[in-house]
Amino acid sequence: MSFTVFVLSQILMDVEVIARLVLGAERLHGFTNTIGGATLVLLPAVYVGRPICQAVLGWWNRNLSPAQRGWLSTRTSISWKAAWAGGILGVYSHWLLDAIMHADARALWPISSRNPFVGWLSIGGVNTVCTWSLAMGCVGLFALAMLRRFRKSEQRGA
Predict the structure, then answer these.
(1) What separation in angstroms does the CA of 47 have from each of 40, 53, 78, 81, 120?
(2) Are residues 16 and 88 in the same domain?
(3) 110 and 48 in one domain?
(4) pLDDT in tens, 24-71
(5) 41 and 111: one domain?
(6) Could you give the CA distance from residue 110 to residue 97 in angstroms, rounded to a whole number?
(7) Which domain holds residue 128?
(8) Per-position DSSP letters for 27-59, written without gaps between them
(9) How do residues 129-157 score in pLDDT, each as one tens digit?
(10) Mean pLDDT, the chain, as a whole number?
(11) Pick from 61, 118, 141, 158: CA 20 to 30 A from residue 124's CA?
(12) Is 140 helix (H, G, I), strand (E, B) or coil?
């Protein structure tokens, strides 16, 4: 999964909300918070986002100091599979969390104008799920880093 495409898709999901907020709209969660709108956001998140994210990763690597390169540099290429995984996870998790948290979201429009997801979890419950997801992601990244380090040392010793 591409973390950068995931992050970009999260940002793109909120562009309409920010525009509505700036314009003083009464209802903030509009078309992009519907299943169809989220799907339309997915396409530029992946097709336009992949080359943008690759460029950002290249910029990131170029701006690291020699001391930082050993532990902060990253691959700059993003496979299509990783871009799609990041985009899908980013767009649809955002869509579902907004549907749970915001009564003005019409998550299943045009099939239904009501939001069957609102209130599934309290705001505290959503925060708890997100916090545990972050913790599990950090544990997973740490485990992956240790596994890579172990494999490198094993290759040097062989």
Answers:
(1) 11, 11, 11, 12, 33
(2) yes
(3) yes
(4) 999 999 999 999 999 999 999 999 999 999 999 999 999 999 989 888
(5) yes
(6) 19
(7) 121-158
(8) ----GGGSHHHHHHHHHHHHHTHHHHHHHHHHH
(9) 999 999 999 999 889 888 988 887 888 77
(10) 93
(11) 141
(12) helix
Q: Where are the alpha helices (DSSP H) in the chain?
A: 3-13, 15-22, 35-47, 49-62, 66-72, 80-101, 123-157
Same domain, 7 and 73: yes
Task: Using alpha carbons, list the distances in angstroms from residue 84 to 46, 80, 111.
Answer: 6, 6, 25
Structurally, the chain folds into a number of domains equal to 2
36 and 108 part of one domain: yes
Please identify which residue in the block is written with the tokens 């100091």.
65
Per-residue CA distances from 105 to 7, 56, 108, 139 (Å): 21, 32, 9, 33
Name residue 85's amino acid.
A
Residue showing tokens 């992050």: 7
Is the link from the previous residue into 44 a cis peptide, with omega within 30 of 0? no
The verdict on 9 and 82 lying in the same domain is yes
